Amino acid sequence: MGKGRLEAFSDGVLAIIITIMVLELKIPEGAGIEALVPMLPNFFSYVLSFVYVGIYWNNHHHLLHAAGSVSGGVLWSNLNLLFWLSLFPFSTSWMGGNHFEPLPTATYGAVLFMAAIAYNILQRSIMATDGCSSVLRKAIGADWKGKVSMALYLSAVGVAFVAPWLAQVIYVAVALLWLVPDKRIEQAVNQN
User: Fold this and answer.
1) What are the C-alpha distances in Å from 144 to residues 25, 93, 119, 151, 178?
2) pTM of the predicted model as reported, rounded to 2 decimal places
3) Which of 70, 98, 108, 166 has the greatest count of CB atoms below 10 A from its CB?
4) From CA 128, how far away is CA 65, in angstroms rounded?
5) Which UniProt keywords apply (predicted)?
6) Calpha distance 22→92 (Å, rounded)
7) Percentages helix, strand, coil for the chain, rounded to the nearest 5?
C-alpha cells in the first residue's frame, strides 16, 4: 500500500471523528444567552478536542510525508493511533457533559496519553521500516516534546482526582505546546 492511500484513509477517519464530536453538541433549550451558559463545559471540551485532532492531523501529515515506505507494521501502528483518536468523541462528551468531574477528566487524559503513546509507536514503526536512512529518525531526534507531553498527560490523569481544573490547565498547556507546527520534519524532508 502506498503512503497516499494510508494518508487518505487516516484523513477520512479524522474527519469522521470531528463530525461525531460536533454532533454531540446539543442545541440549547431557549433562545437567550442564559441558555448557552450550561453548555460552556461541552463547548470548551469540544474546542480543546478539535484542536487536538487538528494537531494530530497536521503532525500525521508530516509524519507520513517523511516516511520512505509503508509496511504492515506501519499500517497496524496507524490503526492503533486511529483507535485511540476515535475515543476522543466519547471522552470529550463525557468530560464536558459532566462539567469536568474527576473521573471523566481523568479518562480524557488517559485517552490523550494513549494517543500519544500510539503516535510514538507509529513514529518508531516508520523509522524501523525505513532503517538507518530514515528521514524521520534524523528529524525527531530525542523527541523531547513527545516525552514531555506523555509525562504531562500522565500527571494530569492523577491530578484530575484532586483538582480537575488543574488537569484542564495541563491539557490546554500541552495543546499550546503542539499548536505551533513542528518544523523539524519539514526541514529534514526538504534537505533530502
Assistant:
1) 35, 30, 14, 11, 12
2) 0.92
3) 108
4) 16
5) Ion channel, Ion transport, Membrane, Potassium, Potassium channel, Potassium transport, Transmembrane, Transmembrane helix, Transport
6) 10
7) 80, 0, 20
